[in-house]
Amino acid sequence: MPLTEIAAKISRGLAKHPFDESLKLDCGEDGVIALVDGAVSRENVDTKCTIAMSKDNLEKLMRGKLNPMTAFMMGKIKVDGDVSIAMKLGQLFKG
User: Fold this and answer.
1) How is 29-90 classified by DSSP, letter by letter?
2) Using one digit for the tens of pLDDT, what is the confidence trace for 17-30?
């Protein structure tokens, strides 16, 4: 699934579950998805929390095929900044 489709799915999630924080999903060479001021962007901007992972792991996470805590403990997901914001990410994948 291209990052544009993932961003669209997150955007649908934002419509149902407003997200007031600033968060960036950094998928390295595949690009970024930033959530700032209740909107989704593909621009690499500064946020309070950055979650770094591969695009494949992001897809697995969205499909429920990757447990976020296990992935974090195994180093498949790295969090920089406010971890409490990262904990809210799951609500956006419900869209």
Assistant:
1) GG-EEEEETTEEE-S----SEEEE--HHHHHHHHHT-S-HHHHHHTTSSEEEE-HHHHTTGG
2) 888 899 999 999 99
